[in-house]
Amino acid sequence: MTKFDVNETVAAVTNRIIERSKPMRETYLGRLQDRASKGPKRSTLSCGNLAHGFAACGVSDKENLKGDEVANLGIITAYNDMLSAHQPFETFPALIKEAAREAGGVAQVAGGVPAMCDGVTQGQAGMELSLFSRDVIAMAAAVGLSHDMFDAAVYLGVCDKIVPGLTIAALTFGHLPAIFVPAGPMTTGQSNDEKAEIRQLYAEGKVGRKELLESESKSYHGPGTCTFYGTANSNQMLMEIMGLHMPGASFINPGTELRDALTKEAAKRALAITALGNEFTPVGEMIDERSIVNGIIGLHATGGSTNHTMHLVAMAAAAGIKINWADISDLSDVTPLLARVYPNGLADVNHFEAAGGLGFLIRELADNGMLHRDVHTVYGHGMDDYMVEAKLDGKGGVERHKSPEKSGNEKVLAPFDKAFQKTGGLKMLSGNIGRAVIKTSAVKEEHRVVEAPARIFHDQNEMQAAFQAGELTEDFIAVIRFNGPKANGMPELHKLTPTLGILQQRGLKVALVTDGRMSGASGKIPAAIHVTPEALDGGVIGKIQEGDIVRLDANEGTLEVLLDEATLAVREQASADLSANTHGMGRELFETFRRVAGHADEGASVFG
Q1: The pTM is what?
Q2: 240 and 361 in one domain?
Q3: Are residue 435 and residue 383 in the same domain, yes or no?
Q4: Which of 216, 219, 254, 523 would be a feasible disulfide site paired with 88, CB 3.0-4.6 Å?
Q5: How many of the other CB atoms lie within 10 Å of CB of 555?
Q6: How far apart, in whole angstroms, are the C-alpha atoms of residue 300 and residue 329?
């Protein structure tokens, strides 16, 4: 194999996605091309329409927007100053407007989208809005762009559901060029292993709330993304490896000159790729099946967030591309794990960046046939442009250097021939319970197969109570059900991680099976999550009874309750009182979402 050949499995999976997607993709591209041919043409708006559109602009911007010769950049922002990851976006619109004027264009904030933090809502009622917020974000961004005043858009978002929601919106408005602009990770605080230790001590009652809060405050201490490799930082990796970021932009800390320079550069590039120039790059054409496969490969190679087994399905669908869990699983089987970032290591994303970051990782994958190099990107020339480090050029701008030939720390970022494991960090499970996802990158080999009696809970607090009462003293598999999209919006169940970790440390064989989520922070406990069909939708997870033997085998990719088909066929489905989940913290407003939500393996989306 030469360094330009594509791995046989990668090529085969890509080709079957292309074939499967043809009807949807052709319809999508036809609509996109038709829409692109019609505008936007601000000069054809009625005078009243156009006057409303630029009423608040300065004199020069008004003059520029009266015709079709000057590009107008729409800014969609997820800014709020409660979220550390999104607080830096406060200053970005001014930087983008300044850069647009320098480039002879105009920029306007087209709209804001909500941005909630799963870290704040963990274990709270508000978490039941989290997954659905992705689709709300897509719709909110669509409202902002519906004014049809823009030639391109830049998207300011970082965290869990925000970037997937913005991507769905960008691809829905695929006739427009789109660039995603990150805010970057916060600087390194307390080490992740110290944080995890304090959490376990608190769960055991050995330290109090004061000590726990002090520890958490040292970990989450300033502006920027949380530094562990959860969904937020998985988002940033995806945007870069899919060509939606400027090269080298993902993991530069906020509040730095380089961060500001990258933001201004992104604005100027967005203006350069509009239909008014010679490099028109509508994002719906730019992102194709190969781009999506590159994203999946990146997710596996970095041990990324399990949430993206849903988000990527929904994101791809917005571009008329149909992927499934079998595609994701087959790619996992051939993708080596090249990164060890907490929770599948002790390092954080700043250490990852210092070791060579995405530039090094992308080169290692591409040179070994694991990426499609010739995809289109916002930078224009394929993935080779992303094998770089971004630096200041001494004049306030950005220059790029080739990423280092060797990793700066092979305990954090491994070369291809020294991969931490031969397969990716995510695996799909299937069996008579249904289909599920497991994150294996942080689970030691000796814990990847568990066969034990089921303990049934309908709420993570029920299992917590059983632990506090000293009832969990033997091997078991916790079956936490009625936590799927239709039941209660599929909240993350992070309260379970420290508890199960303690029991595993005590020598018990433990695992989790749930139709809920655990997210990118899934840790060292074998956890079969996103079980579909969910309990409320008639899934077999709703037929498992206390004491039934369940087998989770992450090596073979199976998830079974050890009962014969005849027994399962006559078993009654369990029921649960979900009335408390229908109101409070805005949950009553999401009743329709719960009712129409799709299966987890179809993206858990409310869109048809």
Answers
A1: 0.94
A2: yes
A3: no
A4: 254
A5: 11
A6: 9
DSSP assignment, residue 324? -
Report residue 272: phi and psi, to 5°.
-70, -20
Q: Which of 232, 260, 8 is nearest to 115 (CA)?
A: 232
Domain count, the chain: 2
Q: Would you say the C-alpha torsion 413, 416, 421, 426 has a positive or negative sign?
A: positive
* Inter-CA distances, 152 with 110, 137, 276, 557, Å: 11, 18, 10, 43
For the chain, give the mean pLDDT: 93
Which CATH number covers residue 504? 3.50.30.80
Q: Is there a single domain that holds both residue 437 and residue 378? A: no
Write the single-letter amino acid at 344: N
What are the CB-based long-range contacts (under 8 Å, 24+) for 330-333? 330/9, 330/13, 331/9, 331/10, 331/13, 331/293, 331/296, 331/297, 331/300, 331/424, 332/300, 332/423, 332/424, 332/425, 332/426, 332/427, 332/428, 333/9, 333/423, 333/424
Q: Are residues 248 and 133 in the same domain?
A: yes
Give the residue numbers spanning the domain of 390: 8-38+70-187+222-402
Contact indicator for 71, 106 with CB cutoff of 8 Å = yes
Backbone φ/ψ region at 77: left (φ over 0), alpha (ψ -120 to 50), beta: beta
DSSP 173: T
Q: To the nearest whole percent, how much of the chain has pLDDT over 90?
A: 78
Residue 334 lies in a domain: yes
Using one digit for the tens of pLDDT, what is the confidence trace for 190-207?
A: 776 787 788 778 777 888
- Report whether 117 belongs to an annotated binding site: no
Which distant-in-sequence residues (6+ apart) come within 8 Å of 467 by Cβ? 203, 499, 502, 503
Strands 476-480 and 449-457 come out as parallel
